[in-house]
Amino acid sequence: MNTIGGSIKIIGDKSISHRTVILGSLATGVSKIKNILLSGDTLSTIKIFKQMGVKINNPSENYIEIEGVGLNGLQKPIEPLNAVNSGTTARLLTGLLSKQKFESTLEGSAQLSKRPMERIIKPLCENGAKINDNNGKLPLFFTPSEYTFEHINSSKPSAQVKSGLLLASLYHESFQTTITEETPTRDHTERMLSLMGVNLVRLGNSVTVEPKSKLQNIDYNVPGDPSSAAFLIAIGVLRSKELNIQNVLLNERRIGFLKILRKMNADITIKDVEVQNNENVGTIVVKKSKLKGVMVEGKDVADMVDEFPVFTLLASQAEGNTVVEGAEELRLKESDRIMAMENFILNLGGQINTSSNGYKISGIQKLQGGLIKTEEDHRIAMTGVVANLCINSEIKIDNTECISDSYPSFFSDLENIGAEYVS
């Protein structure tokens, strides 16, 4: 077996990359975005803004320049806007498109068209937005409406919904807007808006936005994606002598996975932390560890929702019981991730007991070879690759192409740390 380790910098964060494109397009002046993730999901966002008249240039790899058109400069698209597989694109743009002075249609792939949109449509329409939907799902049809809201509530633990509401609130010219959520979620939109000159205040579970007629352009270096780093961290915990993942986003709402792994006795340290563009960034150091089972509660789920597939695999390799509760949101991601991971473990001869909102799994399990059904979910596919590399090389994956939705350089990064995958 190869020695796994060394130092690596990974691709830019997906959540932040989407937001630089959206807010850079609405800014005044040219925004320069370095280390942007150019993957299936973010390219969907870029294409949509180009359709609405924004000039976005890509002079070199992972670098774009956006000629912002201002808050009121978007143009009516000739064709329907297609979010493809990107839930972030669909939900953030629902808030934005509901405030435009032109009609538009937003659609997506068959996979995305199964995912719930009512969580963002309902609060907007209750305040006067005109959005026709397909039983709470895509496609959506937007008709101009001069609606406003001073207070609005998001009942779902979703930064996508909150960000969609924040984008709509940018169009309120004469009063401040307060958005409340029941569970605090990742706050990249708020941090970036502050950077662009918007006054906003976070108090507990609410954020209040002051009116602003224009957004300042930004020069932004996107930090590494912690949700993508999770797969390298998992390999590090299972096999590595020492692995350093540099320049990773360490936003408090994005390190739930690291916190839970530490509770599981993982040898993980963080160093070289600094603040860049209102976000904490640093190096994650991982060493092979003897994991023990852990309890994950509902309050932990929102901060590690993207890492659950690979977390489930790690739980199967931890001594004792791991119990997950309050994770019903996992059933509404790119796939039903509770069901997908149940099938994953069972297909490899393992054991897992699932419920409507979580599961119980015991370890250490000796997983056998078998074929993983990814359900076209990039995070299930990458979890399968980790299982192949660290547990049993006879574990195969039915679709690795979907990995390019979020992590197109995944396989080359694996090679760079000595973990070459052979399909």
What does the model show?
This protein is of the alpha/beta class. The protein has 2 domains: 14-221, Enolpyruvate transferase domain (UDP-n-acetylglucosamine1-carboxyvinyl-transferase, Chain); 224-416, UDP-n-acetylglucosamine1-carboxyvinyl-transferase, Chain (Alpha-beta prism). The protein has helices at residues 14-26, 40-51, 87-97, 118-126, 159-169, 188-195, 226-239, 256-263, 298-301, 308-316, 337-347, 378-390, 410-416, and strands at residues 5-9, 27-34, 55-60, 63-69, 81-82, 104-107, 130-134, 137-143, 151-154, 177-181, 200-203, 206-209, 215-216, 219-221, 242-249, 267-276, 279-287, 295-296, 320-324, 353-355, 358-363, 370-372, 395-397. The strands form 6 sheets. Strands 2, 3, 4, 13 and 14 form a 5-stranded mixed beta sheet that branches. Strands 1-15-17-16 form a 4-stranded mixed beta sheet. It has a 4-stranded mixed beta sheet with strand order 5-6-8-7. Strand 7 and strand 8 (137-143) form a beta hairpin. Helix 1 (14-26) packs parallel to helix 2 (40-51), helix 3 (87-97) packs parallel to helix 5 and helix 7 (226-239) runs parallel beside helix 12 (378-390). The protein starts with a strand and ends in a 7-residue tail after the last helix.
